[in-house]
Amino acid sequence: MKIPRREMLGVMTAAAGSALLPASFAGAAEQASAANTAPRETVTGIGGFFFRARDPKALSQWYQDHLGITVIPRQAGDSPWTQQAGPTAFQPFPETTSYFGDSTKQWMLNFRVADLDRMTRQLEAAGIAVTVDPTTYPNGRFAHTHDPEGNPIELWQPMKAGGD
Predict the structure, then answer these.
(1) Secondary structure E strands in 94-139
(2) Could you count the other beta carbons within 10 Å of the beta carbon of residue 135?
(3) Which helix (H) or strand (E) is 142 found in, with range?
(4) What is the rounded CA–CA span in Å between residue 121 and residue 143?
(5) Taking the mean position of all CA atoms in its chain, how far away is CA 35?
(6) DSSP class per residue in 144-157
(7) CA–CA separation, 21 and 13 (whole Å)
(8) What is the pTM of this model?
(9) Is residue 14 scored above 50 in pLDDT?
(10) Residues 105-127: tens digit of each pLDDT
(11) Which residues pair with 146 in a beta bridge?
């Protein structure tokens, strides 16, 4: 937990003076203890995903056309892409992982989908190669594809309540 600078200076001053004034150390300890019991602030979700592209305009259009993701609004009245509430996996992988495919890629996007088979058919109809993992895992089903610049994309159909 980050302690505001003024509070930290007060704690340090009280602690430094404790050799001369033993009672001041107890007050500083109580103040530091109270600061450590306050609820921690946490992030509430991913507010954006930004990355470099050789052709940002064309890639933005590809994500909009094939996955329904709109880019940052450019003018008043434009709406940003709003995702549905649901689980979000956040996991660093070893730098030697082969899970992303191309070892030069540092990240992989995982998008939740309601119907993996329907999304796969839609992408394949547009000429986009998709590899569906034949295994159904306890947390759902997965497929893998790439955007036009070779960035890995994982599609995830989470298990519905009741294991369907």
Answers:
(1) 109-112, 131-132
(2) 7
(3) strand 140-146
(4) 12
(5) 29
(6) EEE-TT--EEEEEE
(7) 11
(8) 0.70
(9) no
(10) 899 999 999 999 999 999 999 99
(11) 152
Helix (H, G, I), strand (E, B) or coil at 134: coil
pLDDT in tens, 53-102: 999 999 999 999 999 998 888 888 888 888 888 888 889 999 899 998 88
Q: What is the DSSP string of 59-93?
A: HHHHHHHHH----S--STTPPPP-PPS--------
**Cα–Cα distance list, 117 to 67, 68, 74 (Å):** 14, 16, 33
Count of helices and strands (H, E) across the chain: 4, 4
Give the pLDDT of residue 71. Answer: 86
Please name which of 75, 59, 55, 78 lies closest in space to residue 67, comparing C-alpha atoms. 59
Distance of CA 160 to the CA centre of its chain: 22
Using the structure block, give the residue that is written with the tokens 């003018």.
75
Count CB atoms within 10 A of the CB of residue 155: 22
Residues 146, 152 contacting (CB under 8 angstroms): yes
Write the single-letter amino acid at 20: L
